[in-house]
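Look over this record before class:
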Amino acid sequence: MRILDVAADPAVAVAAATEVLRAGGVVVIPTDTVYGIAASPLADSTAELFRLKGRPPDQPVAVLTDSPTQVDDIADVPEVARRLAGRHWPGPLTLVVPRRPGLGFDLGDGEDAPSIGVRVPDHALPRALALEVGPIAVTSANEHGEATPTAAADAAAALAAEPALVLDGGTLQASASTVVDCTGPEPRVLREGPLTAAELGLS
């Protein structure tokens, strides 16, 4: 297992992860919340992501993007979601919105799924990766149902098998992102994380 220190040379870390992701591999990366397992959102790559995490295939993963503009390429963003994004992106907020058809993404719910979870993280590394390779499928780097370790090597060791590459971004303390479903008539908090319903104006 190859481990790179992001702080030592961010450009080298991004280049190495880009190579792995383009080849269909899986990378452990730091984000603004917890360590994540990142893969291309295409079917073969996400199947490996689910295998390493032991995640049930009926629990889809979200994608991280470099900007709201990249989100618009893959999703039809309702106005209420756009307002939340304008206030809280980049940051720890995942928005579930209608998915554009024909993407070819398989995030655990099939390529024809009607919705997609999207987020612009407040961390330069995943945004740089998304800029290089397009939106990346990311879920927390831990065994399904367990807490995510705060250190990169521990996060990698918690998986069912070694990932191709681990990017060490230091100790991470935050919890996983808040998730809000914006596909219905009113936004609905599916998971509270760093942002509470009250902070989002949804309580």
